[in-house]
From TrEMBL:
SUPFAM superfamilies reported in the protein's UniProt record: Calcium ATPase, transmembrane domain M (SSF81665), HAD-like (SSF56784)
Superkingdom of this protein's organism: Eukaryota
PANTHER family: ATP7, ISOFORM B, P-TYPE CU(+) TRANSPORTER
Species, as recorded: Perkinsus olseni
Compartment list: Membrane
The protein's name in its UniProt record: Copper-transporting ATPase
NCBIfam families: ATPase-IB_hvy, ATPase_P-type
Length: 467
């Protein structure tokens, strides 16, 4: 299955899905036709009785055939004008246009149309929870400082251990410890990756541990006097925003490594848009040490931050925010944050849309630059859906009594069947045109955003936003 086929499958799936407002509308539409037929029958009976017993002054001189024709025209006008097309088109047309606009203009692949309704609901408070590594940062940390590691054999064993992990930090440590490649003669057994803690395994019979908690690394809650130098060094680096990993072999500390991951250029602007343009609550939840997480959060202007968070801690935060009445939008890398993405009201994975675990997310975005515009697009889409529904109901409320001849006795005005048919078609046209305005709105707002277009081109290898 090609990447393009997978992307098309996601888009088609979203366009075929139904938000809650459409399911409610479908229930109304299901009883609409029987209700109109019943209304038409009542109108025919009432007009037939009026024409026979006490016809209006304008129909007093009509023959019975002319009266019957008048009643028939009233009934025909009702059936012509009351087509539920506008009601049925109100939501799906907006969803189809919004899904296409999100994909082509914003680089967002939407899996479920329900997302537009949830993310676009301004009546509820919304909290955006952001992962750090690979989301706010580029996900390619590099070693900046080290202490210890005088034993080259220990470095080789550390490289062999970290090579079994797919985490970006582990990849960076393995590359630093063994720049020429991992020693293939080393045998790794019993490898265990503990989320939020570190890795441990046996390398040629030696217990190797690497993680951010020095007491866990050495296997003792009591710090030996000789380790205080490492403790102080680790704290200084964390205060400077670095991720610090200590390594031990058979319970003996071999050294510590400080790594830094560059913030994405768009991260600070994203946080500003979420907080001040969209008026959302922003959280950062990271598995890194609390000091490191707070330093990065301060650099980005994020006030709510949780460090040393395990996957279960992220899910607990999401549940707590939900209990406080928030709609929760979780943004992560789509791999390590799978449980949190699934637990959130809207899960957003940052990646290609093909290689990330899209099963856990509701939306896949190529770049963080598309996140704030996507939330704004969701609000515009929901607003458009309600405008469509308002128009569909108002049209029927006004036109049905007119078609039934309510103005005929005092003014002689009727709605001819041919005009009723044209009016019905025009009502559907208004709904479709209003839905298409979403595409124009997206283009006018974000079509000239060169940074966003460039990010999408880099992710998809095609030209966007220029047509």
């Amino acid at each position: 299955q090609t990447a393009l086929a997978r992307i098309l499958q996601l888009v088609e799936s979203a366009q075929a899905s139904k938000p809650a407002v459409q399911r409610a509308t479908d229930k109304v539409a299901a009883v609409f036709v029987p209700a109109i037929l019943a209304f038409c029958a009542i109108v025919v009976c009432v007009w037939a009785a009026v024409a026979a017993v006490s016809p209006p002054e304008r129909a007093a001189d009509m023959t019975d055939a002319e009266k019957a024709l008048l009643v028939f025209r009233f009934a025909l006008s009702i059936l012509m004008v009351a087509c539920p097309c506008a009601l049925g088109l109100a939501t799906p047309t907006a969803v189809v246009v919004a899904t296409g606009a999100a994909a082509t203009r914003l680089g967002c692949l939407v899996k479920d149309a329900q997302v537009f309704e949830v993310a676009g609901n301004r009546k509820r408070k919304m909290a955006v929870v952001l992962d750090k590594t690979g989301t706010l940062t580029e996900g390619e940390p590099g070693v900046t400082k080290t202490i210890g590691f005088e034993d080259s054999r220990a470095k080789a064993m550390l490289a062999a251990a970290e090579a079994n992990s797919e985490h970006p930090i582990a990849t960076a440590i393995s590359a630093w410890a063994a720049p020429d490649g991992v020693d293939s003669t080393l045998t790794v057994t019993g490898f265990e990756n503990i989320p939020g803690v570190g890795v441990k395994c046996d390398v040629d019979g030696h217990l190797v541990r690497a993680g951010g908690d020095l007491s866990w690394v050495v296997g003792s809650e009591t710090m030996a006097e000789g380790l205080m130098e490492y403790v102080q060094w680790m704290q200084r680096e964390r205060d400077d925003g670095a991720v610090v990993v200590a390594a031990a072999v058979d319970g003996v500390v071999q050294g510590c490594i400080a790594l830094k991951d560059r913030l994405r250029p768009e991260s600070a602007d994203l946080v500003h848009q979420l907080r001040y343009t969209l008026d959302l609550s922003v959280w950062m939840c990271s598995g890194d040490h609390e000091a490191t997480a707070k330093k990065v959060a301060a650099d980005l202007g994020i006030e709510n931050v949780i460090g040393q968070a395990k996957p279960s801690d992220k899910m607990a935060l999401i549940r707590r925010l939900k209990l406080n009445g928030n709609t929760v939008l979780m943004v992560g890398d789509g791999v390590n944050d799978g449980p949190a993405l699934a637990a959130a009201d809207v899960g957003v994975a940052v990646g290609s849309g093909v290689d990330v675990s899209t099963d856990a997310s509701d939306v896949v975005i190529h770049s963080l630059r598309g996140l704030a515009p996507f939330i704004a697009l969701s609000r515009q889409t929901l607003k458009t859906i309600w405008r469509n529904l308002f128009w569909a109901f108002i049209f029927n409320i006004i036109m049905l009594p007119l078609a039934a001849g309510i103005l005929y006795p005092p003014t002689g005005i009727t709605l001819p069947p041919e005009v009723a048919g044209v009016a019905m078609a025009c009502s559907s046209l208004v709904v479709v045109t209003n839905s298409l305005s979403i595409q124009y709105w997206t283009k006018s707002r974000y079509g000239h955003d060169e940074d966003l277009s460039k990010a999408i081109r880099e992710a998809t290898g095609r030209k966007v936003g220029k047509e």
